[in-house]
Amino acid sequence: MYEVELKLRADHDPVRRRLMELDVRRTGTVSQVDVYYDAPHREFASTDEALRVREERTVHEPTDAVRRGEWDESPEEVRTRLTYKGPLVDDASKTRREFETCVADGTALSKLLDALGFEPAARVRKEREEFEFDGYAVTLDSVEGVGEFVEVDRAVPESEVAAARERAFEVVAELGLDPDATIRTSYLEMVLDARTDDAGAGPE
Length: 204
What we know:
Layout: E1 2-9, H1 12-21, E2 25-38, H2 44-47, E3 50-60, H3 64-67, E4 76-88, E5 96-103, H4 106-115, E6 119-133, E7 136-143, E8 147-156, H5 161-174, H6 187-201
Antiparallel strand pairs: 1-5, 1-8, 2-3, 2-6, 3-4, 4-5, 6-7, 7-8
């Protein structure tokens, strides 16, 4: 599968209002901690690849039972996922080949990667509001240390990448955002750049 993704730096409030105008369903809120790993056999920064372990805590939107008071709160889900992302495949979006699987024991996975020589390179923390719009996931991301962003993405087979990318640009426009303002820099790169800037700033 390929992940077709568009990302923009944007204030959340006007986008949230636009989603409400479009009557788009919010599916939940997520707290994520992503740990990216370096491989012992090649440099992912040079090959434009990524290996990520994501621990996320999801609070789903209230069900009818919650609203009626039959349950105290919305269901919460905690899970760990291992993801490989291949190099970007075009110059217009953040489309990549992607493989992902859920992991039962995140601690055991960390020990396994350590035993194989994979080393943690960086940690990215973010809070995410998730919406579903016309088959696309629309997320409002608040990324620690780098700001607010909007992502529009969808997983499709290779044969559907071009059509999915074209529709993703249309979704961005329907959200009141500029399709020409999309960026291809990953959150990992932003966090690493911010870390470098902080280290080079020195004392005032």
